[in-house]
Structures are given as C-alpha cells and as structure tokens.
Design brief:
Protein name: SDR family NAD(P)-dependent oxidoreductase
GO molecular function, one term: oxidoreductase activity
CATH class: Alpha Beta
Bound molecules: NADP nicotinamide-adenine-dinucleotide phosphate
Family: Belongs to the short-chain dehydrogenases/reductases (SDR) family.
Mean pLDDT: 96
CATH architecture: 3-Layer(aba) Sandwich
InterPro entries: KR_dom, NAD(P)-bd_dom_sf, SDR_fam
CATH superfamily: NAD(P)-binding Rossmann-like Domain
Low-confidence stretches: none
Number of domains: 1
Largest sheet: 7 strands, parallel
Keywords: Oxidoreductase
Length: about 250
C-alpha cells in the first residue's frame, strides 16, 4: 500500500472558452460537480452571463482574449480574489480552421498557433505557477482533437496545435511528478459553431465511418472531463479519445 494521497477533487476550476459549445457545457459540469468556476471568452454570451447571475458566489466570468497574456493574468488574479485559489484548469478555448494549407495565409496560420497552442501553454504556465504556490496539487485537462491522431484535410495548422498540446501534456505530466494530474480529452467532430463549416456530406461521411453510427455530442464528453476533474482515477499523461471509434 502506498501512503501517497490521491490528488483531491477539483474545488475551483478555470475553463477557457466557456461561453458556448463544449466550453459552456463544461462550466455547467464543473458547477454540478460542486466546484467553483471561473470562465472566460472574448465575448461573454447571455448563457454564460446567466450562469454567473444564478451562482453569484460560485461563478466568475470575464471577457478576455487569451492571446493577451496580461489580460489573462489579471483575470486569474480577479477570479482568485472572488472565488479563492484555483486548483484545476480546462483548456477548452480554440479557433478552428477550414482551409487547405496552401490556401491558408501566413497570418492565419500564426493566429491559429498563437491562440490554440502558445496561449494555451501560457495559460497553463500561469495556472500552474498560481496553483503550485497555493494548493500545490491539482488537475489540468486539455481539450484536443482526433485531428491530432488522424489526418483531416483543411485542418493542418489546427491539427498541429492539438498534436502539440497532446505532446506538451505528456511532458508536463512528467514534470509535475503526479502533483498535478494532466490529461487530454480528444473529441471527434461534434456540432458547434466551430464545426458549422462542415457540410452535410462531410458530416454524413464522418458518421458512416464511425462504428457507433453517430457523431459525438458534448454530453458524451462532459462526463469524461468531469471524471478527470473530480474522480480518483489515477489517470495521468493520457489522451482519452471520445469519437465513437471513428479514429480506430
Ligand atoms: N466542434 C468539434 O467538432 C470539435 C472536435 C474536436 C475538438 N474540438 C475542440 O473542442 C473545444 C471546444 O470547441 P467548440 O466546438 O465548442 O468551439 P466553439 O463553439 O467555437 O467555442 C470555442 C470557445 O473558445 C473561445 N475562444 C476562441 N478564441 C478565443 C480567444 N482568443 N480568447 C478567449 N476565448 C477564445 C470562444 O469564445 P469567443 O469566440 O467569444 O472568444 C468559445 O467560447 C476546442 O478546443 C475545439 O478545438 C471541437
């Protein structure tokens, strides 16, 4: 029997991109798990604002562009002043892509990498420095994608950022020596603003290639992220794919 205690369940979770889509569902899941929640996006939607208004003691939201490192730092400071120390981070915010690599401008490639990869690594660094100084333990979940594991046309830079996050996640899990459980959840395609660029034909092709015969829904993903935030799973440094088996 080891006398090393389990990492406690998350009590105060920061969700990036919590304004809509999967991020909004993850804010609700973290709240339902009994945690306080801080969430930001560039635009605070009425749905996110309502959650904050309904839970004034437990939810803190803000309008922050995650590529603005100073604004991210200020948000973390304000969130802690309001909710107490953060001990979990869900890196959900990202921008998508729908253009062949040869037709994607250098500026757009830079934006995708800056938002999805660089800013996520900087947010993770800021969170870990804060949490190491406070609770000393915690949990990080990266929302990545099956695009990091299989090739999808039109998603070259996006895929590079998600593969980069999966690789960084494993290295970070080593660096943290088990004091922080760090994992990725890699969804297959699900309906959202990001995937709205996919046409009916593309969606039916993906569905046909999925053994379970149906696309993923946010409700399939939130229990997995919830488990990584709250349960004593001892899962660390792993990519958990939620895609109905489409990528096997
Ligand atoms: N949809 C899919 O098929 C699919 C499949 C696999 C993985 N994923 C991943 O799942 C996660 C959620 O995707 P989703 O489909 O729910 O996307 P979505 O509806 O487009 O939501 C993305 C969220 O990120 C925020 N965001 C984007 N850029 C930001 C920035 N610079 N600063 C702060 N927040 C920013 C957005 O808010 P603002 O625009 O207001 O900033 C929004 O809250 C992403 O990591 C995505 O890569 C999605």
């Amino acid at each position: 029997m080891s006398d090393t205690p389990a990492i406690p369940a998350a009590s105060c979770v920061l969700v990036s991109g919590g304004s809509r889509g999967l991020g909004l569902a993850l804010v609700e899941r973290a709240l339902a798990g009994g945690a306080k929640v801080a969430a930001f996006a560039r635009t605070v939607t009425p749905e996110l604002a309502k959650i904050a208004a309904d839970h004034p003691e437990d939810v803190f939201v803000g309008s922050v562009d995650m590529t603005d490192n100073t604004a991210v730092g200020a948000f973390i400071k304000e969130a802690c002043a309001k909710l107490g120390p953060l001990d979990a981070l869900v890196n959900n915010a990202a921008v998508g892509q729908d253009s062949l690599h040869v037709h994607t401008s250098p500026e757009r490639i830079g934006q995708i990498i800056e938002t999805n990869l660089t800013s996520t690594l900087l947010l993770t660094r800021a969170f870990l420095r804060h949490a190491m100084a406070k609770s000393g333990k915690g949990r990080v979940v990266m929302v990545t994608s099956v695009c990091a594991q299989r090739g999808y046309a039109g998603l070259v830079s996006y895929s590079a950022t998600k593969g980069g996050l999966d690789a960084a996640m494993r290295a970070l899990a080593r660096e943290m020596h088990g004091r922080f459980l760090i994992n990725s959840v890699a969804p297959g395609f699900f309906a959202s603003e990001m995937s709205s660029v996919l046409g009916a034909e593309q969606l039916s092709t993906i569905t046909r290639r999925t053994p379970t015969g149906r696309l993923v829904e946010p409700d399939n993903i939130t229990p997995i992220v919830g488990s990584l935030l709250f349960d004593d799973t001892n899962i660390n440094g792993q990519v958990i794919t939620v895609d109905g088996g489409g990528s096997i």
